[in-house]
Specification:
Layout lengths: L1 H18 L1 H11 L7 E2 L7 E6 L11 E6 L6 H12 L6 E4 L5 H13 L3 E4 L1 E4 L14 H7 L5 E6 L4 E3 L1 H6 L4 E3 L5 E4 L5 E3 L4 E4 L5 H17 L5 H7 L7 E2 L2 H6 L7 E3 L3 E3 L7 E10 L5 E11 L4 E10 L9 E6 L2 E4 L5 E4 L8 E10 H10 L1 E7 L9 E6 L3 H12 L3
Parallel strand pairs: 2-7, 3-4, 4-5, 5-9, 8-10
Antiparallel strand pairs: 1-12, 2-3, 6-7, 10-13, 11-12, 14-16, 15-16, 16-17, 17-18, 18-22, 19-20, 19-23, 21-22, 23-24
Helix pairs in contact: 3-4, 10-11
Length: 419
């Protein structure tokens, strides 16, 4: 029992570190905020657009191709997107942002352009095949990866929600889309506005002091833009309370309550995470509307790692709504005609890194690797929640997609055999 408790605690710490990386990135962005002196936007990885393709349903049901948008919103970004859409006839594809922000005027222009074209936009990092994940706020450090993105050709890639972030001006661009997708694990960060002046060569300077009236006018226009895009003005009010050199990461409840993305159920694809400081693991994140009135949005996670050559250590972090705390359920995984019941022993936890104010139930089991191979072949895996006896209430079934699971199982098969 002590060994199981130790394994569960260590795994819970690791998943907190992984899922909470977006909040850490937001704090890092604030710490590295540009000085209030002259700077050149063009030198800060200006917003780049390119076409990407992944496996079937990689970017949603029936969606395997998308537009990747990453970098800073700089001078001319909106016009470059308009030209890109025209050149590549890509107006029907969704666009996924990964950006620390930039010029709000360009972000608003991009938002209006996407609304004009009735586009879908989301938040996720696009990782071309063969490129490594970095912790940098923008782009990849590998020059070859940057060159691949600039070929003008469609790039084979993976869409990783857990590595994606959209901060500052990026949020205002995102809400311009007709349909918005903020998958679990992706981060949205906001702060108040500041006035800048842009010279003809792209240099940005802080506006002179004493421009309160001009800032108030701009903020009024920004608040009106938020409302016109069908988003609650509380988004602007929340941002206005945060200093320009700080970041507030929106919670799932805020993302839903503001009307940015209020889907009752969302999930990421199965994602392989392999970082120098952490062992190999596979993650899937799920966000659900829960509670008596289905207004509490909770984040849950599945984590797979090696237990032995043919067995997988399966950790299920279950986000609890207020009416679920203290209630025990029988939980099992099912794939085809096979199922696996989690032991009744579990650990309760609260973690600001995963979700502010959230309560979680952590369950750990060892599962045959063949179980997940069967799930990958069948295209789905179910989490079944059953009230314990003597209850006769029907079970609640959460059906999860198997997108990315076949690759993840292949990696686990190769690596677990070496442990």
């Amino acid at each position: 029992m002590r060994h199981r408790r130790l394994l569960l605690s260590l795994a819970l710490i690791e998943i907190c570190l992984t899922v909470g990386a977006r909040a850490q990135d937001a704090r890092a962005l604030a710490a590295k905020a540009p000085p209030r002196s002259e700077q050149v936007v063009a030198e800060r990885s200006p917003l780049l657009f390119y076409l990407a393709r992944g496996e079937d349903n990689a970017c949603g049901e029936g969606c395997g191709e998308w537009i990747a948008a990453e970098g800073f919103f700089g001078v001319g970004s909106a016009q470059r997107l308009r030209t890109f859409l025209k050149t590549h006839s890509a107006g029907k594809l969704p666009i996924f942002f990964h950006s620390p922000g930039g010029l709000q005027s360009e972000a608003l222009a991009i938002g209006r352009l996407m609304r004009e074209r009735q586009m879908t936009a989301g938040v996720a990092k696009t990782v071309p095949a063969g490129c490594s994940i970095t912790h940098a706020t923008t782009g990849d450090s590998d020059k070859a990866c940057r060159d691949v993105k600039r070929t003008g050709q469609k790039v084979a890639a993976e869409l990783r929600a857990m590595d994606g972030s959209c901060n500052s001006a990026c949020v205002y661009a995102l809400i311009g889309a007709k349909v918005r997708q903020v998958p679990p694990g992706a981060g949205l960060g906001v702060h108040s506005s500041k006035l800048v002046r842009v010279s003809r060569d792209g240099r940005v300077k802080m506006a002179a002091a004493g421009q309160n009236a001009q800032l108030a006018t701009f903020n009024g226009q920004l608040r009106d833009y938020v409302r016109r895009m069908g988003v609650d003005a509380a988004l602007f009010d929340t941002a206005a309370k945060v200093a320009p050199d700080q970041i507030h990461r929106l919670t799932r409840d805020e993302i839903a309550r503001f009307g940015i993305d209020d889907r009752a159920f969302q999930e990421t694809q199965w994602t392989v995470s392999e970082k120098p400081s952490q062992p190999l693991a596979v993650f899937k994140l799920v966000a659900e509307a829960k509670g008596a009135n289905h207004k509490e949005f909770r984040l849950s996670a599945l984590r797979l790692s090696c237990a032995s050559a043919d067995r997988i250590r399966t950790l299920y972090i279950r986000g609890l709504a207020s009416d679920e705390v203290g209630r025990t359920k029988v939980l099992k995984l099912a794939a085809g005609n096979r199922n696996w019941v989690f032991p009744r022993w579990r650990q309760l936890a609260s973690s600001e890194a995963i979700e502010a104010g959230g309560s979680f139930e952590a369950l750990l089991a060892e599962t045959p690797l063949e179980f997940f191979e069967s799930a990958a072949a069948g295209g789905r895996i179910d989490i079944i929640e059953q009230e314990p006896p003597p209850s006769t209430a029907p079970p609640r079934v959460i059906s999860l997609s198997a997108v990315g699971l076949a690759h993840a199982v292949e990696v686990l098969r190769q690596r677990c055999g070496k442990t």
